[in-house]
Amino acid sequence: MDIVYTLWLRSMKRYLRSKSRIVGSLGMPIFFLLALGFGLNEVVQLPGSTGENYLQFLVPGIIAMAVLFTSVFSGIMIIWDKQFGFLKETLVAPVSRLEIMLGQTAGGATTAVIQGAFILVLSLLIGISIPTIQGFLIAFLFMTLIGICFAAFGIAIASKMEDMHGFQLIMNFVIFPIFGLSGALFPIASLPEWVIPLTLINPLTYGVEGIRYGLLGTSAIHPLVCLAALGASTVVMIVVGAFLFRKASV
Amino acid sequence: MAAVLVDKLTKRFGDLTAVDAISFEIEKGEIFGLLGPNGAGKTTAISMLSTLLLPTSGRALVNGIDIQKDQDGVRKAIGVVFQDQSLDEELTAWENMDFHGRLYRIPKAIREERIRAMLRLVELEDRQGSLVKTYSGGMRRRLEIARGLLHEPSVLFLDEPTLGLDPQTRNHLWEYIQNLNRRKGITIILTTHYMDEADRLCDRIAIIDRGRIVAMDTPANLKSRVGEDVVYITSPDAGRITDEITAPWIMGAEQYDGQVIIRLQSAEDHLLELLRMFGGDGYTITSISIRKPTLEDVFLHYTGREMRQEEAGALDRMRMMMPRRN
Question: Taking CB atoms and an 8 Å limit, are B87 and A89 in contact across chains?
């Protein structure tokens, strides 16, 4: 546990020092929120809506987006450590690979949840209604699970990558599709029928719906189903990430 | 018990045999050098001994612990300073040290005390709160050495410790390394392709070329096995001196361009005699100088090739640029 904490602490210090990274990775979610939210709010009529407008519908999706991108990126950061030699320092210490991996995951997840929280606060400022305390806690639970799940996913990817060259590829062909197919931007039910199975095997879908339940009180998928599905995905990602990282060499 | 025992250690990458059945034994408190050109297999050997790479075959014990059977045991007993930088540039020197101390599970009170002591030792205590990215190459190297010593290892690996550093910093680091060895009795294994470095620091040297150890002894013995010293005497009477010089320890003398070139054993012991023979009346000596064989000559002698210095130069430059890339 000490070791996990040590690696977490390092992630936190680095995160708090890189102001440009904090602001930079908030840029895209804020852009999406403002452009889509305000741009489409008047135009879009949600099918079967229970009264919320598109902006309200969009906020949980954008929070999930911020958490997703930050956590995947934090996981992939291990490649930098590999390239700049720091990974050797941890690998030659008398600690297990699992502890290193868990520490990195915890650090990535924490920064991701903080980024998500920024978006949440911002949404309150632009006028979505304030949910209950329980609602907040539910939203944070799902943000945390998304963070852990995708930080581990990032580490799994990083363990298989040699350098940062593949990063753009991963972003465009893995991360954006995960985001696009999650119901973050539009209700799952309104998608073409053949796409729906793809959204249902996507862990992020359950995260988005879970946050939506917390903040709006309604969701397309039952929140307990979301919790079970996302929780299981998180466990699987940690196991896969730990396994691949164990095989990774410097 | 030997500090390090290596027995037919071998590492193959596909067809390439990077380390080819090397064997040696290092005593406690010794400074042992692996000398060879880049690509000779030094770093691969160090990587195996520090548990970062598994050997293809062979066996090695570090501090009596098998590097394959008890990796954690070996890791606790060793400190490693890698060839390429391995600091976190976004952290301060203190934080890098603290991170290391926590990884090695040193209790807080002891950890802080030791970090303070080590930073003082490498004269970085004034800059302990600065981010490492603001450090010069020499400061980074010193910090890495301090970090490698924080958990008081009994064996310290230094992979090309002074690569890419300016001569002044190199000298400074050499003094540190020698002091550490003397004061704390730490066994040190260092790799280098600098002849002067090996000569200055090491109690014993293994010359490694293409994965094999071609010679192993003290620097003095290695050099004396290679051959004789040379004394150059510049004199207007060079011709006469050349004709008249005879002594049992002189192995040959020739005259060339106003210079007498005398090949002999242990020049410094016989310099006085030489001066007695030719320093008096009748001879004028303008200058006299001694050239001792260097490890460069030793390397040439054992491998039939010169150290590939130009290639090393290019690689050095690349390495120097690496940590600065950001």
Answer: yes
Q: Given A17, A85, A91, which is nearest B90 (Cβ)?
A: A17
Residue with tokens 């690349």: B318
Window B:76-115, CB contacts with A under 8 Å: 76, 78, 80, 82, 84-91, 95, 99-100, 102-105
Q: What is the DSSP letter of B141?
A: H
Contacting residues of B for A14, CB less than 8 Å apart: 88, 90-91
Question: In chain A, where do the E strands start and end?
Answer: none
Q: Which of B87, B102, B104 sits opposite A86 (nearest CB)?
A: B87
- Rg of chain A taking only CA atoms, in angstroms: 18
What residues of A are in contact with residue B90 (Cβ under 8 Å)? 13-14, 17-18
Q: What is the pLDDT of residues A149-195, one digit of tens each?
A: 999 999 999 998 887 788 888 888 999 999 999 989 888 888 888 88
Q: What is the per-residue pLDDT across B26-35, written as a single tens digit (0 to 9) for each? A: 999 999 999 9
The CA-to-CA distance between both ends of chain B, in Å, stands at: 45
Instruction: Report residue A157 as tokens.
Output: 């990817």
Q: Is the pLDDT of residue A223 over 90?
A: yes
Q: How is domain B228-291 classified at the architecture level of CATH?
A: 2-Layer Sandwich (3.30)
**B residues 110-149 near A, CB within 8 Å?**
131, 147
| pLDDT over threshold 80, residue A202 | yes
Within the 19-48 window of chain A, which residues sit less than 8 Å (CB to CB) from chain B? none
Q: Specify the pLDDT at position A23.
A: 87
Query: What is the model's pLDDT at position B326?
Result: 35
Q: For A141-151, what is each residue's pLDDT tens digit?
A: 999 999 999 99
Q: Which of B88, B134, B151, B152 to mutate to test the interface with A (most CBs of A within 10 A)?
A: B88
> How do the domains of chain B map onto residue ranges?
4-223, 228-291
B88 contacts A95? CB cut-off 8 A? no
The sign one gets for the Cα dihedral A250, B74, B35, B192 is: positive
Residue in this structure with the two tokens 């396994």, named with its chain if needed: A243
Q: Under an 8 A CB cutoff, do A250 and B103 touch?
A: no
Task: Report the Cα A40 to chain-centroid distance in Å.
Answer: 24
* A&B contacts, CB < 8 Å: 69
Q: DSSP letter at B131?
A: B
Q: Which CATH number fits domain B4-223: 3.40.50.300, 3.90.550.10, 3.20.70.20, 3.40.390.10?
A: 3.40.50.300
In this prediction the pTM is 0.82
DSSP per-residue letters across B266-292: SHHHHHHHHHHHHSSTT----EEEEE-
Task: State the greatest distance between any 2 C-alpha atoms of chain A, in Å, as a whole number.
Answer: 59
Question: What is the residue-averaged pLDDT of chain A?
Answer: 90
pLDDT digits (tens, 9 = 90+) for A1-49: 889 999 999 999 999 998 888 888 888 899 989 888 888 887 777 776 6
Q: Between these two residues, B37 and A51, which has the higher pLDDT value?
A: B37
Contacts of B82 in chain A (CB under 8 A): 85, 88
Q: Which residues of chain B have pLDDT under 50?
A: 310-313, 323-326
On whether ipTM exceeds 0.95, the answer is no
